[in-house]
Amino acid sequence: MLIIMERLISLEGLSELFELLKQEYTVYGPVIENGFITTGRPESLSQLPSGFISVEEKNSYSISEGEGFFSYPRPAYPYKRLVHPPEYRFMEIKKDNGDLDFKYVLPEEKIAIFDIRSCDLRGLAILDDVFINKNSYPDAVYSRLRENLFIVAVTCTSPSPVCFCTSMGIDLKPEDGYDILLTEVDGGFIAEARTQKGTEVLSQIDGQSVRKEDFKKAETRINKAREKIQRKVNTHKLPERLYAKIDDPAWEETGKRCLACGSCTQLCPTCFCFDVVEENDPVNGTSCRVRVHDSCFNPSFATVHRFNIRQSIASRYRQWLMHKFAYWVDQFGSFGCVGCGRCITWCPASIDITEEIERITD
């Protein structure tokens, strides 16, 4: 792991980092809204949910008091909407003297994420493969948004009770994918810059040299956090085990409980399906094409030539879970799940994906 610069900064230095980013970027980060921790646009460091935690279980969420500055886990909503917007007008068409003028619209806003955890960071890396790295036709909109993104990651020392990221091979301290990484320790924050952009920003902030004992303190915190993660998924030959159960009656049992609401797909950091709709204005002779999020749970999603190949809810749930833990491996060489546990917390039917995998593959 290549670290260009590292230094120990104070809370004042952390605030200075936040303000520096605001000068060039629109800053997004965790905030408290309507009683839960979600992604938003904090105006200052003080608006982060410092001193709070989220108490999560199946179909259950509340916030309570916690310890430390980065006391909270990942927010309820992932950051994927910053690079894969829920709705985006990507093409405008105008009629001019009988000819059609097509204009491709690319985003120009520069965005900084302040505080992203390992699970969501891996989610972005997975989307990178989907839209750019392992795509024969790289997505221009996603690519532009990704190019304009500055990332301040945070080592997670406060996982939620629904998290199972370690089962998916994700460490609480991310190894890459960020410009600056912050790790909270007694007496301050270890700041590590991994990119040239990160180094240029971090070099403007006063700090001290990081000592060996500071890293030891950080590792002690991380080890304690790892012990808090109780949910597990056995990923050993998981695609093969799932393929062997593709016609198992267990899917029908889940289908009777699932509401096909699509909550899990909207909250998942890696679900990327979208539809394209045409919005026409015949009076002014204009039209535009808009990308909107879609879900494999939608009744019309699998309609081919007016025939829906997945008419039952059970078949849609099977498609979703199989894609995350089997098909995705065939497509991209990795699992499509980061173990953030959001789908467990926000499922109105209290379906726990870790329990479903164990039950189906048993």
Describe the model.
The strands form four sheets. The chain has a seven-stranded mixed β-sheet, sandwiched between helices. The chain has a four-stranded antiparallel β-sheet with strand order 7-6-13-12, with no helix packed on it. The protein has a two-stranded antiparallel sheet with strand order 4-5. The model has no long low-confidence stretch (mean pLDDT 95). A hairpin with a 2-residue loop joins β2 (26-33) and β3 (36-40). The chain has 362 residues and is α+β, with helices and mostly antiparallel strands. Helices cover 33% and strands 25% of the residues.
Features:
alpha+beta; 362 residues; 4-stranded antiparallel sheet
Strand content: 15-25%
Largest sheet: 7 strands, mixed
Q: Please tell me the overall pLDDT.
A: 95
| Principal-axes shape call | globular
Beta strand count: 15
Q: Helix and strand succession?
A: EHEEEEHEEEHHEEEHHHHHEEEEHHH
How helix-rich are the residues, as a percent range? 25-40%
Which parts are unreliable, with pLDDT below 50 for 5 consecutive residues or more?
none
**Distance N to C terminus:** 38 Å
Spatial order of the strands forming the largest sheet: 1-11-10-9-8-2-3
Number of helices, counting only DSSP H or I runs of 4 residues or more: 12
The value of Rg in angstroms is: 22 Å
The secondary structure category is: alpha+beta
